[in-house]
Amino acid sequence: MDNDEPLEPETKDESDAVSVSQSSDETLYCEAEPPTAVEKEKPARESSETDLEIEDTEKFSTTGQRELYLEACKLVGVVPISYFIRNMEESCVNLSHHGLGPKGTKAIAIALVSNTTVLTLELADNCIMEEGILSLVEMLQENYYLQEMNISDNDLGLQGARILSEFLHNNTSSLSSLQLSGNNFKEESAELFCQALLTNYRIKSLDLSHNQFSDKAGEYLGQMLAINVGLQSLDLSWNSLCLRGAVALSNGLQANVSLRKLDLSMNSFGNEGAAALGEVLRLNNCLVYIDLSSNNISNEGLSNISRGLELNESLKVLKLYLNPISMDGAVLLILAIKRNPKSKMEDIDISNVLVSEQFVKILDGVCAVHPQLDVIYKAVRGISNKKTLFTWTSPVKLIQSYADQHKISVLDFFRSLNPSGETKMPVGEFRKAMIQQNKVPVNRYQVRELIKMLGQKTDMVDFRLARPRHLAASGLPFCPGQASRSL
Question: Angle at CA 111, nearest 5°, toward 110 and 113?
């Protein structure tokens, strides 16, 4: 019963706090008072150092957080979300598709004002509306722990953009990643966001995909990117920036010195937009990842991109999936990489392009100069999948055989490839090391399979995944010409 004794004064204080909040415009500051009452009990407990009493203290603090949320639900008149109650002490809380509405969002915000454990909050598709956004913004002004927030697919529109842009303009929170996909944002919203980001350097990752930005939004975004030195990742996919937007955006990218990852897929840039981006690649040496998939770029536009790649010293990933590119355009692309001795290109995705054996021979020559490079194409013309299915021995079996012969573990083999001896390694460096090592004879298709097995989706390979069960799962025949969308 000792553990239950502190709950009585706590509950009383919380009831008092709720009464005060109801008489003072129900601000989040008043509603968040209960944890202060809980803290008053801590000094006496901190004087003792037994494990049992430390556990009791943590339990007491957790109970206070849960009680605060339950009281907030009573205050706003909503049913508590059991998932949130169970997970409010976790670093990531996913409440997407929970039908919170503005009141449910306000209850969550009240509980998070004093929360110190939740770092990532997912609130996509909850119809949070203007009232919910106001509650979240007010919470963020008090919470200095939350780092990532997803409020996509909430149809926030212009009014929501106004609230968020004002917050971004005066942002003093710890928020660094914000997802705003699918919120019916148009040109005016783009202008508001870009004005705020002219001075906000705290936001490192911003997702504005699946909105309704067009050429005018491209102008605002270009002006912002020319000045902003905080953004490192920007997703503008599934908008309608088109030609004028692409040109304006590219003008800003030429001066940008911080953006590393840019997703521009599904924006109808066309060949003229591709020409503008080719100029960006020629001048910008900060971008490492660009997705230009499905932008109606043909060989003509690809030739301009290729000229930019001849001088670029930073880009590692280029996605051109679902563009009307032929094998001739693909040849232009890889020869541009060959002509650039300082190219860092690692992955090129042209996985809808059917190539010939001649292309493969040219690619072999390019990879001899740049062993870190991998190009994903659809298939080799004239060679069926059935014929290539068993062409190469599983790289897993080759490595396991080598390890057995030399009485070492597979993990030891992989670690020998890393100069630092660590168990993790960037994908490009791993690919280069595997191609250049002479212990186990493998080609780039076999290396691709190893990268998939060791966690390529994280841009790092993890040698600790080289356990027997992982090896067994990956030791299957594969088709080297088939595209892998995960790459």
Answer: 70
